[in-house]
Amino acid sequence: MNLMRNRGGIALHARIPMDTRVQWDRAMELAARRRTLRLISNGMYILTSRWGDNFGAATVTWLSQASFKPPLLMAAIRTNSNVFRCLSESRLAAVHILGCDQKEVAQKFFFPTTAGEGTINGEPFIDGSTGMPVLPNTPAHIECSVIRVLNDLGDHAIVVLEVLEAECRMRVRPLTIADSPWEYGG
């Protein structure tokens, strides 16, 4: 094995023969990989979108701020979901921050989207400034435009969103997967 080291003695890059890498890949225990990847901290959010009369809403956990200028978010969204279809067509979405006491709200959006008279999956919504469904029972929301979709890298699409509007109705400790009985990813 050939290691390149910086002045501090830390390995920056290891040149490992291909056959050794393949053996390591095969030897990696699936359960250990899952446990390790699930240690990455993830918040729980609800993402909503609309395209005409079609509504999409889902609990998402792979979301992060990606830039200050311009303010960008990135989210990983299942491509076979209503919310992905709606945001792909409308090019708009709303991200809702959940408080640590809102597990029951998060759970409502684990299921396919059903929209009725002013509700999505049983939660009331209003039209936001972009026309996207905004859930007023959440402490904060961010309305965004879709600026890029990377849909050829894995089982989720990476969606880059530019922040257009934001409202914080109350400061709370956000809900995270660690606060919930659920696991996602790994």
What are the SSEs and their pairings?
Blueprint: E1 2-5, E2 11-15, H1 18-27, H2 30-37, E3 45-51, E4 54-60, E5 63-67, E6 72-78, H3 82-90, E7 92-97, H4 103-108, E8 115-116, E9 119-120, E10 123-124, E11 126-127, E12 133-134, E13 140-150, E14 156-168
Antiparallel strand pairs: 1-2, 3-4, 3-7, 5-6, 6-14, 7-13, 8-9, 9-10, 11-12, 13-14
Comma- or semicolon-separated keywords:
single chain; 186 residues; seven-stranded antiparallel β-sheet; three-stranded antiparallel β-sheet; 14 strands
Question: How would you describe this structure to a colleague?
Answer:
With 186 residues, the protein is an alpha+beta fold. It has a single domain (45-179), classed as Electron Transport, Fmn-binding Protein, Chain A (Pnp Oxidase, Chain A, Roll). It has helices at residues 18-27, 30-37, 82-90, 103-108, and strands at 2-5, 11-15, 45-51, 54-60, 63-67, 72-78, 92-97, 115-116, 119-120, 123-124, 126-127, 133-134, 140-150, 156-168. Strands 4-3-7-13-14-6-5 form a seven-stranded antiparallel sheet. The protein has a three-stranded antiparallel sheet with strand order 8-9-10, with no helix packed on it. It has a two-stranded antiparallel ribbon with strand order 1-2. β5 (63-67) and β6 form a beta hairpin. It starts with a strand and ends in an 18-residue tail after the last strand.
